[in-house]
DNA sequence: CGTTAATCGAGACGGTACGTCGCGTCTTCCC
DNA sequence: GGGAAGACGCGACGTACCGTCTCGATTAACG
């Protein structure tokens, strides 16, 4: 998707590329992903439809690259390691909450989530390029905590990870309850309690 | 949706209703939700398009009712209370895992999840009619456990609930890892560890 | 073309049919056949493109039916038989000249002529439905004249026919010289001279 | 068209020029003029599109030059003057019939005829460069015949000309009947009968 | 128990968007 | 500077579905 198909990349118009990605984000923010059309993107970007079809295989792929560009603009997630695991996790989980509540990210994310259900390739790409790098950063922090003795030795870090992230994702997707810092804190506390090494 | 709208329900053709719901499920299973069209449903069901539009406001509503019918056929999830909280939770979580892995449920569920992102009304309906009743059953079991002293007094049951359910949902939606009984068990064990009342 | 293909003719919207034929004629008169597009016809007629494609196989077919409707509105060509062959022929040939010079007929005719070169089916249809009936009327008049002794017995009427009509068509198509009544008269006179029965 | 436009003709690649004209003829023979595209010509000729646009103003102009090249290869039609007018005319008319029946000329001719209807400039060019020279040759032969007393004094040679040529053109364009030597002969005979000087 | 009005299958209709083709212009790199 | 290559903005193509709207032909409730 980032490097989709074949034509000569050297001749590609960077101007058009940016205009398309920007237009896609704007439109998804304005109208919701359901009403997003290739024609609207092309019109907004001042670009021929063919220029989109030349470089991206589907609307979802455009959206994906738009989202990647957005994430890059914002820089990666900083995962601090101050030694205080609970504080570190709460900080990053709160930041995640803020991001999920930010319409700038929320709407494209929902659009991509919707498209992913019908497009396994997109889903795999999303997981590989966006989700897993983040999870890997989390896991690294947990591993460091395990080395430091803050977490029981035998802990399956991958499960612990999903215990942290799953509930946030669940609330965001299903909108069952408001997604707040308090909730993030509560999740972190509960999970850490279950990870605590046996009292000596 | 479940209670659609206006015309004289008495005159409604039950034959057509079933044919439409069945056709929708078949088509979603065959082609994926993205390619599901009203026209295809009507053709497959041997029904005029107007008969669909008369009784349902949208494609998503048809899918929703199809899904409800499917769930009813299978009966609700029984939440046992044997007194052994861990065993009870593992049983029901494993059952959930099996359901999520069953293509019969998997594809329509994904279709509904996708539609929900663009249709807040559907999302609310789904939550209210399908998700929350299940969660309520879980919560009731946890409450009973708290009364029995298996869970610490101050526990926020809602958060505990989402700690259980969130990770499963996360794996299902994002397909990061296979969704297995072992994972369900691990989640239950971890969560219960964090809920345990302080040792006396 | 007049009866092109399949859908249920009973349900056909006469209103749309007329609007399409009228729009086609208007547009061909305004912009010339080269710039005539199905989209423009549909827009002008206030009609969906599919309604055109449902009933006609091609742009040329629409134009053909438009032209037929135009001809019907104007009524058939009256071929008088006053007994004076030269007068009768001059009258009808002058009328033909006027028609070829009338932009109302000229532009659609040229458009059809152009399309016919690439569409043998259209060409055959044009010949069979429009041209041959006219030629048959001419031929009948010549036959009557032959019976009356105004034309030599052995004359090949078909060749005579094309000797009359061919030069007019040639000037019209190739625009080599202005197409006037005088030219029509001259053609008639020359041809009749060649058809005259041997002097006794 | 024959003298296209501006750039430095000295630098022009003769190789490309021939390839383009040949490709145009081949394609028009294969696919019919309706499907002839500049891109196809460029691809077939192994030439950049710009090279075509640099030297010709339109697809029709390319076709026109292709046709001219074809005619030059074959050499002009010789109009004999043996003293026997009827024999001379029959010879040349039969040759014309053969040419019109030769697919090598037929298809490009039809293509040009079609284009001419929408492109008055092309039409004028065709008439001036191709048609009128031929007609002038015919007319010259008729004039010679009039001098020789084979044709009545007052005859309008131009009309006589079109009486000869019009019927052939009519049959070719409209395909009403097969275009044969017999038809050519019949036309010549009829026309000459009408041109005959008054019996003395 | 026949009348009658609503629902039904069918599908034509005015539209919107699709993904493709070709246009004529432009830009890049090569000879 | 001409030429091969081909990306670009654009406009039209012919198709797929949308949601609305007629059409008879059932069909179920009411008179």
UniProtKB/TrEMBL annotation, chains A, B, C, D:
Gene3D superfamilies: Homeodomain-like, Tetracycline Repressor, domain 2
TM regions (residue ranges): none
Pfam family, one: TetR_N
Stretch forming the signal peptide: none
InterPro entries: Homeodomain-like_sf, HTH-type_TetR-like_transc_reg, HTH_TetR, Tet_transcr_reg_TetR-rel_C_sf, TetR_C
Molecular function via GO: DNA-binding transcription factor activity; transcription cis-regulatory region binding
Assigned keywords, A-Z: DNA-binding, Transcription, Transcription regulation
The HTH tetR-type domain, residue ranges: 14-74
DNA-binding residues: 37-56
SUPFAM superfamilies reported in the protein's UniProt record: Homeodomain-like, Tetracyclin repressor-like, C-terminal domain
Protein's UniProt name: TetR/AcrR family transcriptional regulator
């Amino acid at each position: 998707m980032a490097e989709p198909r074949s034509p000569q990349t050297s001749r590609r118009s960077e101007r058009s590329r940016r205009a398309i990605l920007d237009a896609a984000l704007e439109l998804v923010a304005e109208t919701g992903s359901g009403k997003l059309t290739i024609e609207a993107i092309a019109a907004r970007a001042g670009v021929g439809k063919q220029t989109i079809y030349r470089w991206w295989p589907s609307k979802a792929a455009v959206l994906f690259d738009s989202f990647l560009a957005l994430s890059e603009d914002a820089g990666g997630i900083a995962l601090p390691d101050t030694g205080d695991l609970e504080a570190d996790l709460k900080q990053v989980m709160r930041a995640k909450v803020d991001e999920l509540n930010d319409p700038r990210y929320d709407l494209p994310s929902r659009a991509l989530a919707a498209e992913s259900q019908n497009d396994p390739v997109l889903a795999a790409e999303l997981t590989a390029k966006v989700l897993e790098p983040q999870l890997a950063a989390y896991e690294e922090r947990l591993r460091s905590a395990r080395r430091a003795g803050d977490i029981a030795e035998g802990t399956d870090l991958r499960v612990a990870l999903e215990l942290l992230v799953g509930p946030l994702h669940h609330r965001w997707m299903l909108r069952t309850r408001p997604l707040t810092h308090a909730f993030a804190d509560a999740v972190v506390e509960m999970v850490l309690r279950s990870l605590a090494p046996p009292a000596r």
